[in-house]
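Re-run requested by the PI after the first attempt was lost when the workstation crashed. Everything re-entered from the original request form. Ligand of interest: phenylalanine.
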Amino acid sequence: MLTQQTDDGKRSSLHGNWSSRMAFILAVTGSAVGLGNIWKFPYIAGQNGGGAFVLVYLACVILIGMPVMMSEILIGRRGRRNPVRTMELLGKEEGGSGRWRWVGGLGVVAGILILSYYSVIAGWTLAYIVKSVSGVFAGASPQAVGAEFDNFVGDWRLVGLTHTVFMGLAVFVVARGVERGLEQAVRFMVPALLVLMLVLLGYSISSGYFGQGVAFMFTPDFGALTRDSILAALGQAFFTLSIGMGAVMAYGAYLPEETSITGASAAVVTADTSIAMLAGLAIFPLVFANGLTPGDGPGLVFNTLPLAFGQMPGGVFFSTVFFVLLSFAAWTSAIGLMEPAVAWIVEHYSKTRAQATVGVGLLIWFIGLGSVLSFNVLADARFLAGTIFDNVDYLTSNVMLPLGGLLIVWFAGWVMSRNSTSDELGGSGALYKLWRFSARYLAPVGILFVLLNAIGLLG
Ligand code: PHE
């Protein structure tokens, strides 16, 4: 997928370029579509009361997520280096300061912290492949499925083991530069995941509780919207789109000149949002049909989907395929989470890709142990936002990503010259003007509003 390309007088990437526009879209889609859509969106929406939260989330995706994503890609392509170096280079070039590299640094740290717990949940999906094959879910009651989950996450050795296996797999493929296989994997995985979500949706529609699920997701009760749930909606928009931490910037560094950034961003945002909505529509009816509560937390998907699979014909097969696909989706996201750190170490310390990946992987694995223990041994140790897992999640999704996104969009809108950005976005027509207005005013004001509101500064 990565082929060397020469440039017309512009910087060229150190790592080669994507072979095609499609390869780039697939890679970014692979990074965006993951646990965030299927595991996180339903439980966060559930915890924050549904309807109004979903509406704010969608508004954040379109009004803030889209311009931030375009900014990240255009910065990445213009800099053509790892996010730290790119921000430093462009900072100086655009008459700002080299200190903009700290925005890249913030992203490197955010990626490491996110993957530390992301890998733990991805480990759950690996375990659920094995459970599906064994047939434990066939005809199981809600109580049995719930007990299966509680027993599993309650055992730190099992959770630690699957976290270790997932990190091992991720490091192995990233170190070998198997991004070559990534394109093929995503090309197959995203459509297949879509088909399985439709199967689940069909089951949900037949459950008799579809209307209640839809009502929960789309009837806004603005009274239920707290400052913190508005922040959670913004955080979820950043998390699910993989923006605010340089993953998309790192991928943009390998993007050929002629590719349309606007078109690619729109494609990714549409695919990602559709899958999250489908997941919600499949899961909430099952929640109500089985007398569960939407606000149940991180176990929601693992307590609902196996019930549906357990009831449907061919359930063992569908359930196995589903968790295989979800593990794949997590894996293609894990690559994006590691890429800024790995690319930075390779370029900055002249390490090989393999050395950098193993080093970063070990660090992430170690930090992840905190999240492993958050569901068992240290489940009762709560501070600030809750368990260690809750805190790492809150800090990254609700603080670091929005802050990173604010700085990135500010940089693209206010520090970079109109010439540079219109050059990257291809012209100065209506679409460009719309982006520029969003990057300068809409997105920064939106993010600042939500952040300041959350800490109570807006009264
Ligand atoms: N977007 C991914 C998901 O929804 C998570 C992710 C965040 C990946 C940031 C890369 C960077 O699962």
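Saved to the shared folder this time. The pocket of phenylalanine is lined by residues 31-32, 34-37, 114, 239-240, 242, 245, 247, 333, 336-337 (CB under 6 Å).
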